[in-house]
UniProtKB/TrEMBL annotation:
The lineage of its organism: Bacteria, Bacillati, Bacillota, Clostridia, Eubacteriales. It holds the Pfam family Esterase. It comes from the Bacteria. Coiled coil: none annotated. Signal peptide: none annotated. One of its GO terms (molecular function) is hydrolase activity. InterPro entries: AB_hydrolase_fold (IPR029058), Esterase-like (IPR000801), Mycobacterial_A85_antigen (IPR050583). This is Alpha/beta hydrolase. SUPFAM superfamilies: alpha/beta-Hydrolases (SSF53474). The keyword Hydrolase applies. Keywords: Hydrolase.
Length: 274
């Protein structure tokens, strides 16, 4: 089986946030051989995408293995993934555009970081205005919106939804796994209403029936199910049709990378099956 490669760029400067971050890039198996350019998927929490050694939780998406398998089944299905490391203590701040007291109530460990949202739009602007231009001039990418997606899980799902809807001229595809929409549910719904549907989009959403980020709070599974359902309904209300949004409920799935890894191929098949 042919395998892709991982490039790591350390200390990539984020001028919008005045910070540095590691970028982890998956290149498909034929990248150095084929005369072609590739669709691009921007993903968050890159520490958890490729290797157990860098994972924060000991489990990974194993994106490289999944995309290698997809490629080896059909060489036309080859993609570049741009993984952006999370900022550790800055994660909640960068992955939510709004300050969230609710987030602190549900996730006490988030409150200890001192950052409960507020920098999400700066983070999104970094992806669009700084990172994407660099990637497009450095790698063999298909630059147009039809071939540009944004994907994440949990808080990464929340910020993916906001990024895709804010920059509908840049992204045509959003994948939001097990999104922590409860962190700023009312703000997310208001944002969807204010942005509306300006372009043709494909939006994938899912949630497991046994999700939890806080095992001490028995209400968490219902919180995940209800907040994602409410965001899905808001997307429908502003004009996204049934064929625009795929909303999946994964029976028995919990809140971890192993479950997202299992659901990733189905997402890819739907998101890129135009």
């Amino acid at each position: 089986m042919k395998k892709g490669t991982i490039h790591v760029i350390e200390n990539f400067y984020m001028p919008e946030l005045n910070r540095y971050r590691t970028i982890r890039i998956y290149l498909p198996p034929d990248y150095n051989e084929a005369d072609r350019h590739y669709p691009v998927i921007y993903m968050h929490d890159a520490q958890n995408l490729f290797t157990v050694e860098t994972s924060a939780f000991g489990t990974i998406w194993d994106i490289a293995a999944t995309l290698d398998s997809i490629y080896n089944e059909n060489h036309e299905k080859a993609y570049i993934v741009i993984g952006i490391d999370n900022g550790c203590n800055y994660r909640y701040s960068e992955y939510c555009p709004w300050y969230s007291e609710v987030g602190g109530e549900y996730l006490p460990h988030a409150r200890t970081t001192g950052f409960l949202g507020g920098e999400g739009f700066k983070y999104i602007d970094f992806i669009v205005n700084t990172l994407k231009p660099f990637i497009d001039t450095t790698y063999k990418t298909l630059k147009d919106r039809e071939n540009t997606a944004v994907c994440g899980s949990s808080m990464g799902g929340l910020i993916s939804m906001c990024a895709g809807l804010k920059y509908q001229d840049v992204f045509s595809k959003i994948a939001a796994f097990s999104s922590a929409m409860y962190f700023a549910e009312e703000e997310v719904k208001s944002f969807i209403i204010s942005e509306g549907k300006r372009e043709a989009m494909r939006i994938y959403m899912d949630v497991g029936t046994d999700e939890t980020s806080n095992p001490n709070n028995p209400d968490f599974p219902q919180i995940y199910l209800s907040c994602n359902r409410n965001v899905y309904l808001t997307l429908k209300d502003v004009g996204f049709a049934f064929e625009d949004v795929k909303y999946e409920i994964a029976e028995g799935d919990i809140h971890n990378e192993a479950c997202w890894r299992k659901r990733f191929p189905g997402m890819m098949n739907w998101l890129f099956s135009l």
